[in-house]
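Cross-posting from the modeling subforum.

Setting up a comparison between two proteins and wanted a second pair of eyes on the formatting. Protein 1 (sequence, then structure tokens):
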Amino acid sequence: MKGQTNFTDVEYSQRKRKTKREEFLECMDEITPWDEVVAMIEPYYYHNKKGRKARGIETMFRMYLLQTWYNLSDEALEDAIYDSYAMRKFMHLDFLEESVPDATTLCKFRKIIVENGLAQRYFEAVKSFMEEHGRMMHGGTIVDATIIDAPKSTKNAGNSRDPEMHQTKKGNQWYFGAKMHVGADAGSGLIHTVKVTSANIHDAAVAHELLREDDEVMYGDAAYCSVENHPEVKNDEHLSQIEFRTNKQKPYRKNAWVEGEGTRWLRYMEYQKSRVRCKVEFAFHIVKDIFGFRKTRYKGLKKLEAKAYMLFASANFYMVLMGARNSSRLQQRGALA
């Protein structure tokens, strides 16, 4: 389909407007470094000289990205590509010459990605790309975590839940699943570190793994208020020198303090911390609301970790695209003014 135009493309080009899905996929098609991705996966891909010819690496990775962005099962994604013009166009498929890779082929390709740690390598490549183009700053990190639910049902062959998932209590509600811990750049909000644990691991216990070697400041919510007392931080020469700007437990809300200048100043300082810390929430919004990943589909933390790396790498691209779009709109408004 590359370089060729068929009757379907001509017909669709006459539409009055593009869908948001098509605009998103076109932008991601332009910004993704496909040649580097193919070179990264090629040593681990099939090199069979007999039997059915393997599908192209780029085609399979495009299909894998669609599954990541739209949170579809293997069979559902195969049907969606046949049904959606935008997805078929992103896949660069011409149905006159080839069909959509079937669900089994996608399952085997995903297994290659997970077992060889290629998702993490892709995430690191995206991070390096952001740093080289001046999109990611250094010196400060925002840490946070979010819970991903796992199936609670025991109606299966083993009559048990996933042994790597655990339950935790947040507020007055219990959750069963895992946690995705992230470290975000304090200047841009882009994600630079991802860790996946079971849900019963406390947020502050993983904070030291989310900090970079050149960080001087760490921002976090009230769950990280005692992170400087952890042995991993106190016994580390670099981490012990970091300034921890975390939100407090807000005792002034419990009528423990008399209203006055000191209380108002405390509220102002907490507000300034939250203004920086809230940047990481946009990445969680993209992963959970736009990409629709709120519940894990596969068993095991290793598969969930691979999914998390792909999601946050795509979220970084999405944030850059949104920033470029907003800046162009401001320039247009300034020109009209």
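Protein 2 (same layout):
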Amino acid sequence: MHKYSIIIPTLNEASGIRQCLLALQELRSECQLIIADAGSPDETREVSLPLIDVFITTPKGRAVQMNAGAQKASADVFIFLHADTFLPENALCCIQSALDSGAQWGRFDMQLVGESFMLKVVAVMMNWRSRLTGIATGDQVIFVRRTAFLEAGCFPEVALMEDIAISKCLKKISKCYCLTTKVKSSGRRWEDFGVWRTIVMMWSLRLRYFFGAEPDTLAQLYRQGKIFNKIL
């Protein structure tokens, strides 16, 4: 019986998923590895299968995929990991220490990996914002007890902001345990769109969400990487 289930949502990750999964192989004695794939037409499945325990195909949508992965999970603790994010060597020890202290859920600090110095600034801001608000983002690798996850109602199956939405639900159960140990996440999207441009975009999307914008609309804007002159 595994102690942890690591659930990775994927879509067309053939070029990078092997590196992600190889980094997790030393954890397999304690972790069940689950890929929840949204029907990738590339070789994500073929590359993943030798390196995981469960591969499922689901409808597209990160929240839908992660919920489906959780349904297949055998462990009592879920770890939701993005395919371009890497855990530190002592990740399981950190998580277990948090759980032993009474935590029901939590997340890691994060480091954005890339060329731009501004990525360091962005990561620091994200980590501090998370501490102040008790809201975790998917890039920070959310971990949660099965019981708390089910009590929170799983991830709301929205097109975007599912991490913020479930954080709000989980906060009603217990506060977010913020681990200072850092996961490393790719800063590729930030650099591709431009770091400053992406900062403005993400704040715009978050403000729109706060004021009631539909997640489907926000997801479309996020995919397009657009910047807006008006927040509302």
